[in-house]
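Please go through the sequence line and token line underneath and see whether the fold suits the sequence. See right below:
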Amino acid sequence: MKSSIDFFRHDINAQQDLKIRRIIRDHGYEGYGVYWHVVEILYMCNGSTPYEDLKAEISGVAPLAILDSLIDSGLLHLTEDNMVVSDRVMKEFGFAEERRQRYSEMGKLSASKRSAEVQPKLNVGSTQVEESKEKQKRFVPPTLEEIAAFCKERGNNVDPKKVFDYYSEGKWKGQDGKPVRNWKQKIIAVWERDKRPVKQTVCNDADKMRSDMNANGGFDL
């Protein structure tokens, strides 16, 4: 069986414990070694092990009297169902469990903080992208006032009401049937073009006659 903890604390002054000093006095350091061997077994068995199994483990390597002395001294205890336990070991398991719970709570708190910091950023970015897409899909026609202000700014002498009425009647669609999204560009490219002066390409007859007379040195009468 795998232990629920991987290591245990060993006090540097363990030999100063009166119960352990009695074991050393009665059995020497062999008794001290058997005690820590039993402690290791208890840790590997999650705090308790059958008395008979412990006797079988120790027999042949150390006197069984040492095990009985450990129980008589109070370093080990024998339960009603004949299981060997240790107050020290059980306390260490409790400490380990408390430590695990504390670290677990710290980990959950840290994860919660990270999630709280990241989630709003994700939401903001996602919202901005959705709003941008929505604006691209939705076209809001300009008001007459907006068209008038643009024409005034351009100084193009275009009648804003004519522009507004023309596109409003056509539901803001051009001759190709496509939505007029960039109405400012339409005013510049179409409506301002009609207001540009047309260059005079044909001279009147009087001007042409005078020009011919000058070129030929006059007409014979």
